[in-house]
Amino acid sequence: MPRPSTPCRAPRRLLPIAGACLCLGLPTAYADPAIPDPLLDADLDTLVRLETVVDAGRFPQKRINAPSRVTIVTAQEIEAYGYRTLADVLRSMRGLFTTYDRNYHYLGARGFARPGDYNTRVMILVDGMRLADPVYSQGSIGSAFPVDLSLVKRVEFLPGPGAAAYGNNALLGLINIVTRDPVPGTHQQLRFERGSNGHTAGQATVDHTLGADTRLLLSASRARSRGADHYYAEFDSPQNNHGHADGLDGEAHNRVFAKLALTHWRLQLIASQRTKAVPTASFDQRFNDRRSHTEDDYLMLSAAREFTLSDVTTASVQASYNQYDYAGFYPYDYPPVTLNADSAHGQRIGLETQWATRAFAGHTLRLWGEFYHDTRVDQGNRDLDPARRYLDDRRTGEHWGLFLEDEFDLAERWQLNLGLRWDRQWTGHTTAHPRLGLIHQLDDTTTLKLLYGSASRAPTAYERHYALAGFNTANPALRSETIRTLEAVYEYQDDGLLVSGSAFRYRINDLIDSVTDPVDDTVSFRNVSQASACGIELEGEIASINGDRLGASYTWQHSRDDTTGKGLTNVPRHMLKANWLTHWTPKLQSGLEIQYESGRDTLAGSHTGGRTLANLTLISRHLPHGAELSLSATNLFDIRYAEPASRDHRQDRLRQDGRQFNVVLSVPL
Questions:
Q1: What is each CA distance from 13 to 18, 299, 329, 573, 582, in whole angstroms?
Q2: Which residues of 543-582 are buried (b: 16+ CB within 10 A; e: fewer)?
Q3: How would DSSP label each residue in 405-474?
Q4: H helices of 81-201, where?
Q5: Staple partner for 121: which of 33, 171, 310, 445, CB 3.0–4.6 Å?
């Protein structure tokens, strides 16, 4: 049996229509040059002043006035740098880093990245809809992320304790993915990919105008990859194929996306299905066994409407349904040899409302309320042959939240942002957390911000109630984590130049981590310690009128376990990132990316060493019939490097991919 510290999902086959949609010729993300998108083509100066890109679309504000330091990656940049997963996008942002264990990608932010954490401390939204599931409260950022990047309009990152406004999970920050809207008329496009390790993908998307105020966007995609071969010295023995895991890193996923835009309503469907082979023999599995794999299924539905109540007052409402199913299939040598299935099923219904008014001179009041009912929070574990059940935990839950904010002008060029969040968590506990922001505009180009916030993260159903006799112990008394953050921000923007910097400090109390009991050797989650961190983030970007961009960021971060005094594992002390997008001719552009990270400490006390990676993408436009061709090379110089592994692995570190190529052809119909 496994000692799961990674979710396991039961297959639900939600996407039998994906292949059919592809066969019917329904096309992929469309960008018609005759229909310009002001955001896709915006220069840096325009993006800085854009009012609709901050606070995840909940409370539209000018970026310069937001009580946070906002980072935005647009669709133009996603295409220019050849990003294939949300993890690629996030890894390019200042202060963020990722870890990959050959199954899932995990996100680190501001000096914090617990090995094996399921991205529970950063909230991820898709068009304002929570990606987190009721069982693990996780946010998938790798190939399990349910939306094709070609459909993404922009990705926003707001660092700091966003949970003060957005609730559970936003302990270290908030990520919002904004998908593109249907364009007028009827447009179709096919997209084909071919890459290293047998990667192939096809996508079809159609935009269709159904009426004067009704437009539809429909997309379906399918991808397959054979994956790389791997060698693990920890399994180097004759009975384990001398540590070689050949042909055991493959994956496949199907996705369907639909958005119906009406006069006042937006209806949306997101469905995905992903299967990933696991070559690392995590959870003490049999090594080199082809039955080892995981399956992840998402189904997300939402309906949203906006109301204009007066010239100074607006409101909106969004109803959502979220279903997540996971299964992990783990072969074991325990007599008799068996295949173990670990599963989780989560279903959530949500309702959110918000109201904003400028009816009072010098004040902008915002009120946001939410209610979520988890109709299904199931966890299971069993052997398939011979059949034996070890865990069958079934629950339901509810969560209420209310946020009130007043943004008011203290004096000329001085603004104070006061917010208070109240929650009744699914555990039955209530919390209240403030958010304060003092913002001063020195002049038309320079802004200073002093920000404070506190927030909490409730333990997940997995952390509280997962139990396997002799392996894992439940802990229903597990308490919420809490964080307090103080941050100072400097921002300068003028004539296409953006320069910014921030210094932050935070402390997390009642930190939740998995602990092995020395008496019975079982694993449970406990509130074991507190952690603190401080850091500096610097960033600059310059944009020219023809769309060329040059940007760079530097991050220094130091974090430690206050109980032991030791530095936190899996955290690079220094990060330096540079991006250069240039248009050589009207038909040819390139995107060059350089990323340096210093080494990370592993759980076993060793060090991974630093690494510098270069990624290059070339794009040729205006080919015959309007086609577009791009060629990407990641890890261009084939650098060998590894990242720390979680305690679910026998390996202390896991080697990452070498040089990879990917070719994309987009053809409008």
A1: 11, 11, 16, 42, 43
A2: beeeebbebbbbbbbebbbeeeeeebbbbbbebbbebbbb
A3: EEEEEEETTEEEEEEEEEEE-TTS-EEEEEEEEEEEESSSSEEEEEEEEEEEEPPPHHHHH--BTTTB--
A4: 86-91, 163-166
A5: 171
Structure-token pair, residue 340: 């173990």
Q: Which amino acid is at 529?
A: S
Assigned token pair, 631: 């060629």
Percentage of the chain with pLDDT > 70?
90
Rounded CA gap, 489 and 512, in Å?
29
CA torsion angle 379 380 381 385 (round to 10): -150
Residue 173 CA to residue 71 CA, distance in Å, equals: 11
Q: Report which residue type is found at 372.
A: Y
Phi, psi (deg, nearest 5) at residue 636: -55, -35
pLDDT tens, residue by residue, 281-316: 999 999 999 999 999 999 999 999 999 999 999 999
In this prediction, residue 63 carries a pLDDT of 61
Give the list of residues 6+ apart from residue 13 with CB closer than 8 angstroms, or none.
273, 297
* CA neighbor of 19 nearest in space, from 248, 299, 256: 256
Secondary structure (3-state) at 311: coil
Give me the pLDDT at residue 163, please: 64
Yes or no: say if 101 and 114 are a contact pair by the CB < 8 Å rule.
Answer: no
Residue 624, classified by CB atoms within 10 Å of its CB into exposed (0-12), middle (13-18) or buried (19+), is exposed
d(CA 146, CA 144): 6
Q: How far is CA 55 from the centre of its chain?
A: 16
Q: How many helices (H) and strands (E) does the chain have?
A: 6, 33
Q: Which helix (H) or strand (E) holds 20?
A: helix 16-23
Chain segment 354-374, per-residue pLDDT in tens: 999 999 999 999 999 999 999
What DSSP letter does each residue of 342-374 carry, written as one string?
A: EEEEEEEEEEEEEEEE--STTEEEEEEEEEEEE
Q: How far apart are CA 271 and CA 294, in angstroms?
A: 17
Which helix (H) or strand (E) element contains residue 88?
helix 86-91
Tokens coding 349: 């219904």
Q: What is the pLDDT of residues 37-63, one digit of tens each?
A: 444 344 333 443 343 344 444 555 566
Q: Give, in words, the CATH class of 16-243+254-668.
A: mainly beta
Map out the domains of the chain as residue ranges.
Answer: 16-243+254-668
Match 């904004």 to its residue by tokens: 178
Give CA separation, 235 vs 5, 247, 281, in Å: 21, 16, 9
